[in-house]
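= Tokenised fold =
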Amino acid sequence: MRRYTLTCCVLLAAACSRPADPPPPVTTPATTPAATPIAMSGPLIAAQVTMKAAWEYPRNPLADKTLDGSKLSEEIRRGFRMFTNTPVEAARFAPGGMSCSNCHMNAGQREKSLPLVDIAGMFPEYNRRSARLFSLGDRITDCFLRSENATGGELSADELPAPTSPEVLAISAYLTWLSRGSAMGKNPAWRGQNAIQASALVPVGKLDPAKGEAIYADRCATCHGPDGQGVQIGDKIAGPLWGPRSWNDGAGAARVYTLAGMIRYSMPYLDPGNISDEDAQHVAAFIDSRPRPAFPFKARDYRVEKLPADAVYYGREGREGRDGPPAIGQGAH
């Protein structure tokens, strides 16, 4: 197995500790200095670009001179700040250490890293987990509740994020701005390209967290730390992968195959895309076997649609969550 002097296994792009305002961006390919070009794939930073472009944004509302002093323009800029520095800019809904950009890298503008350019026109769309139509606001609310673990803070039920929450509306404004000029109802070609092909999926019961832990120690721990909490890199810290500061067990990343797709195409960050389909799944199985916050509303999920095989934090008989780390590997099914 190849070794790297500095590698990360998953979700580094946005730090959980960073300045209140993002650094000045490298702008579009047309204005990027020829000496340090950023490889692009259409409007997205190309998947193979390494850590040198971690905090660059092809489209940055803070530098967009077409935005004015209107309330809408201010909300677009505010949404961008929240997206790239969520624990600071939206602290009440992000009590841990996760930013939106930890999963949607380069502020949602990186190929094969859950890009969000031109996706606003796809909503409303059907959500299998909830078995109903989701608006864009519903989807952002769900991310706050799960990936940002808003349910793990001190908020009352009435204070939890909702589609009308100011933070949700601000991020909606930013994502809609990223979709300006796109066709309504036309799925962008880059959407869904971060998933591992079905033919390459290893049954969850055959995944080996111990093997994943060895790969993690070899290729991920330099950035994310042996304890998974992230290592300080300048003024940035790699995203926490488990424990109370990470996503909760109802999040999309708590599904093994979903997390494996992120690892497969976005990491290691100095050599992205150079971890195999199988190894990415073993690493995901290890990460998702570690303790993390419990999402208190799992009983509401998958009440109509079939429970996915990789939803390892859900009980197989009912929809209750497990009290401890999930069983992955032999005997998990």
Observations:
- The first strand starts at residue 40 and ends at 41.
